[in-house]
User: Which sequence fits this backbone?
């Protein structure tokens, strides 16, 4: 498992530094590190996060995710326990979402 | 005759109208301000209303009286903006106004209906907001009769206007209940979606230890799912429950409905804006100022004050077909009321988080950054006078638009 992540650079908080090094295998390994087994529902969120990142250069907010996918906030918290915004971005191989002011 | 149209007559819209009326030739330009409410609200003052510190006349004044006579003022809701056609449709009589330049200063408002159950049975009974005049006044009445129990201050979602206001509220509540001799009968709890007291690390640590000293409990990372006004508790998505006797809510903040109706905003109806030039990202004859913009700066009047000069400079340059050089650096400074006639002050921008030191004069101050002092509190109270009498009337304040590192301690 960790072989997949061996060549990848992470920042201090465990977010990937280069989103281009990401693929589905990497995602699975990152998820496993967080104790998550990826399901189809996780992928709805992860795919959307990647798509948004490619279009706008930053990870989407929770509100953005729930507005544009069929995943509601409650389910998001079940899929990515703790902080779904940060966790989904982390597993999607994106930079740490910038906090609000 | 060309039209310079300003939507919103709050802090940003009023300041823009005053500044532009001095800059634009009245034989060539007509300046119009549209707003739906007759009263201009001094929003920082709303914080003090619940505790009886300010009276209504301190925070409400006639909007028209702050606009220059040469400016046309129209009082009506705004239906929608049609940026492709350079025109705005007003709510009253569907009047249409074409513009050459448009300034969007429509602000941010609370949307309590966004949180499940917030407006059910308890709304304005034992659930209040203090971000509206009516809410703050209703809360003042409630507090007078409050004899003790759990007081929960709940922040629904970031960003909010004046991100320090929830902390100030809870510090002032601590003091207010102590003065009434019932502090030992009151539990103070801050339920926040942030990982700590505030957004920026150094300020968060300072404010966090202040909370501890004042016996205020912080419930961090609390993403509110619902308010249950039957059993008087709020619940988070991750299954935590916090009971309350009084819930003071800072509901979801969103941009104006006109932005929503015009499909010009992001998910929270804030308008995509260049964070340095303050020009709309999509339309080159539109500027977005204050809370209405989606820039990563604090939503506060003090920020608007620092935006005004670069925005005006850029608009004038654009009108003359010249390159825009003026940049807004995200500068914000906020007095944070901490109770007992003291306040802390923070000063920061896009790049630099709040640091300790002195402001505005290095070493001299008189204001202390990131620590409590009595003189900071007087600065905060004096600001109300400066707001009505200097800021809105374009009389310069003795502070710089750009944040300075001089007088700050890095470690």
Assistant:
């Amino acid at each position: 498992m960790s072989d997949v992540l061996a060549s990848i650079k992470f920042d201090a908080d465990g977010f990937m530094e280069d989103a281009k090094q990401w693929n589905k295998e990497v995602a699975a390994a990152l998820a496993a590190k967080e104790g998550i087994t990826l399901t189809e529902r996780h992928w709805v969120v992860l795919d959307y996060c990647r798509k948004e990142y490619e279009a706008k250069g930053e990870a989407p907010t929770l509100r953005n995710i729930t507005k544009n996918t069929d995943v509601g906030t409650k389910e998001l918290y079940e899929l990515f326990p703790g902080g779904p915004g940060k966790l989904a971005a982390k597993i999607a191989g994106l930079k740490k979402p910038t906090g609000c002011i | 005759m060309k039209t310079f149209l300003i939507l919103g007559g709050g802090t940003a819209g009023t300041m823009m109208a005053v500044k532009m009326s001095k800059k634009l030739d009245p034989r060539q330009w007509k300046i119009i301000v549209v707003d739906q409410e007759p009263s201009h609200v001094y929003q920082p003052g709303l914080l003090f209303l619940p505790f009886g510190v300010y009276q209504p006349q301190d925070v409400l004044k006639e909007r028209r009286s702050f606009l220059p006579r040469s400016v046309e003022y129209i009082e009506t809701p705004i239906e929608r903006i049609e940026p492709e056609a350079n025109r705005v449709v007003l709510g009253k009589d569907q009047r249409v106004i074409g513009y050459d330049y448009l300034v969007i200063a429509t602000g941010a408002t609370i949307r309590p209906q966004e949180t499940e159950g917030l407006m059910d049975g308890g709304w304005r009974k034992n659930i209040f907001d203090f971000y509206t005049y009516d809410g703050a006044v209703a809360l003042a009445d409630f507090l007078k009769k409050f004899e003790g129990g759990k007081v929960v201050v709940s922040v629904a979602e970031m960003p909010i206007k004046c991100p320090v206001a929830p902390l100030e509220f809870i510090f002032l509540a601590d003091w207010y209940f102590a003065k009434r001799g019932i502090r030992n009968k009151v539990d103070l709890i801050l339920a926040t979606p942030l990982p700590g007291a505030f957004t920026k690390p150094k300020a968060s640590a300072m404010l966090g230890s202040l909370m501890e000293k004042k016996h205020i409990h912080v419930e961090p990372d609390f993403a509110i799912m619902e308010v249950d006004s039957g059993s008087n508790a709020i619940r988070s998505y991750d299954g935590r429950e916090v009971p309350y006797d009084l819930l003071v809510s800072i509901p979801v903040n969103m941009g104006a409905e006109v932005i929503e109706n015009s499909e010009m905003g992001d998910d929270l109806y804030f308008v995509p804006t260049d964070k340095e030039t303050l020009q709309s990202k999509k339309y080159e004859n539109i500027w977005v100022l204050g809370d209405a913009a989606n820039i990563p700066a604090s939503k506060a009047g003090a920020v608007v004050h620092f935006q005004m000069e670069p925005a005006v400079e850029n608009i004038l340059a654009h009108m003359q077909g010249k390159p825009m050089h003026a940049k807004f650096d995200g500068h914000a400074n906020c007095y944070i009321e901490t109770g007992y006639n003291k306040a802390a002050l923070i000063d920061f921008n896009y790049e630099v988080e709040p640091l300790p030191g002195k402001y505005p004069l290095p070493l001299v101050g008189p204001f202390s950054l990131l620590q409590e002092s009595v003189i900071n509190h007087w600065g905060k109270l004096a600001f109300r006078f400066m707001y009505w009498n200097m800021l809105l009337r374009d009389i310069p304040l003795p502070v710089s638009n750009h944040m300075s590192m001089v007088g700050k301690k890095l470690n």
Observations:
- Chain B touches chain A at residues 157-159, 163, 194, 199, 221, 223, 225, 237-238, 267-268, 296-299 (CB under 8 Å).
